[in-house]
Design brief:
Blueprint lengths: L10 E9 L8 E12 L4 E10 L2 E12 L6 E7 L9 E6 L2 E8 L2 E10 L2 E9 L7 E10 L1
Length: about 150
């Protein structure tokens, strides 16, 4: 499997996000900018994502997508401004039209969803605390090509 299905993440996109109140951030609306580009002859997709509130950057990520050659799963290494290492990678597959990636560490589990739209994509992130079966929203947004 290749990353071809993730082409909707390539280019310059902007949009609105709704941040849920969590131990890491106050809830409320935010503006997002994302720039995605292919790297290493299409073997990687690199995306810079910046979330802003009141005109100031409050959170940034550098997402690196690749594939696991053994399974074909999409792998996401998400470096962020909080600073936790992206190991292990989030591992994902397509569920219909939606790419769903999950990652578990000692701090809990994260699930990120990307769904293409006619002019960009919708995305969301959820968190599940260790020992819990309940997923809690972290952020959801829709970005459109500039």
């Amino acid at each position: 499997m290749s990353l071809d299905g993730l082409g909707f993440l390539v280019g310059e996109l902007t949009g609105r996000e709704e941040v849920s109140a969590t131990p890491w951030a106050e809830g409320g609306p935010a503006t997002a900018r994302a720039t995605g580009e292919w790297a290493l002859d299409g073997g990687l997709l690199v995306q810079h994502h910046v979330q802003e509130r009141d005109g100031a950057a409050v959170f940034g990520t550098l997402n690196v997508f690749t594939t696991d050659p053994a399974t074909g799963d999409v792998l996401l290494y998400a470096f962020d401004s909080v600073g936790y290492p992206p190991e292990p990678a989030a591992r994902g597959t397509w569920h219909g039209e939606e790419q769903v990636l999950e990652r578990t560490t000692e701090r809990g589990s994260a699930r990120t969803r990307f769904t293409p739209t006619p002019d960009g994509y919708r995305w969301s992130k959820e968190f599940r605390a260790p020992g819990s079966d309940v997923w809690s929203p972290v952020v959801a947004g829709e970005l459109r090509h500039a």
